[in-house]
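Sequence, structure tokens reproduced for reference:
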Amino acid sequence: MATEVKVPALGESVTEASVGQWLKQPGDPVAVDEPIVSLETDKVAVDVPSPVAGTMGAQLVKAGDTVNVGAALAIIEAGTAGAKAPAAAAAPAPAKAEAAAPAPVRAEADEEGGAVTLSPAVRRLVLEHGLDPSKIRGTGRDGRLTKDDVVAAIADGTAVALQAAAPVSSAPAAVPTARRQERVKMTRLRQTVAKRLKTAQETAAILTTFNDVDMSAVMEARNKYKDLFEKKHGVRLGFMGFFTKAVCMALKDVPAVNAQIEGDEIVYNDFADISVAVSAPNGLVVPVIRDADKMTVAEIERAIGDFGKRAKDGTLTMEDMKGGTFTISNGGVFGSLMSTPIINPPQSGVLGLHRIEDKAVVRGGEIVIRPMMYLALSYDHRLIDGRDAVTFLVAVKNAIEDPTRLLIDL
């Protein structure tokens, strides 16, 4: 008996998705609830599980197709899978051997010995660096290789170059001289991000103000208490907990930064739902820490850690990304020194964090070395005046340079 696998409900107001990649091929054995295909919506990637155990049958749509909720995706045949037909067994050997070209990029082998399809971003990265993806450990869902895995392998020197096949004749292989191009269709997530950012630029009057912050006090507190903190709360103490608390305090002092424009009205929020940008295999996503102003540093760090793990596993939901009154984006983890972040509509402000660098600064009339970070606040000038923007940013700076303020709400 055959069973159809259909597009599941994708969340409120989401009616369609794009087929990302097939995780199972015809003939593969499939267990109950095992993902067989990945769908991409405007905000998240969703793995569609098989409702029954059996054998993967026909794929009714192709990667890149747009499908509606309820549409049929594939057929699962009853019973266990037979042996896969060997693809190359029936092909006769060529009469004349030609000089072999460099071996093509191979995907890592799964437990069944089949090939796992690489995402376009991962495939492009391994091609650019000439790497063997089967030699890189995948940390994505079901061991899939992510872009972060490849970047990390390159950074720590564990990436292995792809070996070229040995030539079968003594004639030297021709060296390709033509330049290559690869066309990859934009994912639905990337298309949505592009539209939203362009809309923000065209709609809002975006202005950015900068300041620098001395990280000495926060770094000292973190180094002093990080072991006790992790032992008690089961989560590492990072800088985002401090910055999120500082932002929540500053939003109370300058409520316009936490507000938004709707038509000809200004909506002021008496709560702080903080959107935090985290890295996912298909790009940055922005889940929301709800009521962050009522949370402790430990609760904030735990929420961010959970978002990061689920982003890598591809298990974030539409509800995780819904809403948000203010955004914090930490480009410093990628090495950014300074940037002008774009606001996330309908929000009116976004705080950009950057890398920490030792710099010469003047303290008490003397030149000293301090760990400094640039802060960037981009805001909608239609709603937020320059004075309010600077006041907000200075409040964040003061709280980070003197963390005691976070305890006494000053």
